[in-house]
Fold this sequence. Notes:
By secondary structure, this protein is an alpha/beta fold. The chain is built from seven helices and 18 strands. It has helices at residues 27-35, 38-43, 49-53, 93-101, 320-328, 333-346, 354-361, and strands at residues 64-66, 73-78, 105-110, 118-122, 129-133, 138-145, 151-159, 164-171, 177-186, 191-199, 203-212, 218-228, 232-241, 247-257, 261-270, 278-288, 293-302, 308-316.
Amino acid sequence: xxxxxxxxxxxxxxxxxxxxxxxxxxxxxxxxxxxxxxxxxxxxxxxxxxxxxxxxxxxxxxxxxxxxxxxxxxxxxxxxxxxxxxxxxxxxxxxxxxxxxxxxxxxxxxxxxxxxxxxxxxxxxxxxxxxxxxxxxxxxxxxxxxxxxxxxxxxxxxxxxxxxxxxxxxxxxxxxxxxxxxxxxxxxxxxxxxxxxxxxxxxxxxxxxxxxxxxxxxxxxxxxxxxxxxxxxxxxxxxxxxxxxxxxxxxxxxxxxxxxxxxxxxxxxxxxxxxxxxxxxxxxxxxxxxxxxxxxxxxxxxxxxxxxxxxxxxxxxxxxxxxxxxxxxxxxxxxxxxxxxxxxxxxxxxxxxxxxxxxxxxxxxxxxx
Length: 369
């Protein structure tokens, strides 16, 4: 297997110099090793990394921003933001490369509780985004992706002590190859909630890395996806508990139909010393129609005692008992299948963008199965 390589030479921006890598290797060597490590190749087992990696240096624009003109929010472009804290080069070398290639970073600083949502709309490649929510501040963030061609988005979020962020994300476009990287760091007693709604496209990859870096932090992730008609979705969720008494809940439901391909890998990593952690992960997949491909791999990695953890995955079809019940009430088979699939996805559709997600994900979908 040929080695993965970056598309062009790069130099580390000065503001990224504090980011460390194992052994403190020179950047090109460290990135090459990270890209070709066994762990990294395993994460990209079901999606070809070459196409996404080759576009990490592509031109990028600003997203369309609404809601920035309210007290407590400052938005600016900068070539030298505050250095990242807790970033793991080994975990996401492609995302690090995107930062190195970028000439500007979009920074959003939230210094107080906000009353209106902040909306970011992506129509193509967008510049890396760094969002910092200050102590005791809060934000509702809506992200909408509507890209007509290949696109990449990378976002870093840093929540200070007692900060709160409610994040809704609709990725419902179906064209091209689309990669999204999201990194969230939570400090003491902060709270993060993600409502993720997604469809498959020619090749869609979602990497989500949540770092519980403060005692008592809480994260809740819900995701609903539909994949059909030769489209693909690859979701890689990693949740690290680094400090004591953190709480996390992940609930991911996907429907895969008529030749669609869906991959989910969810890893909970509980570090030494993170006693009192409560971490839950559930991934449920519903196969419909013909030739659906579903890969699901939940993982637990625990290095301390006194924790409460559970993880599980299911792959199945519509309950024949439930289908028979609806048929016996005079509902035809296609409509009955649609109702049951809608109910399955509705369990994970919530938040400010739920209405538009409902229309796309289950508004008449699967009726023709």
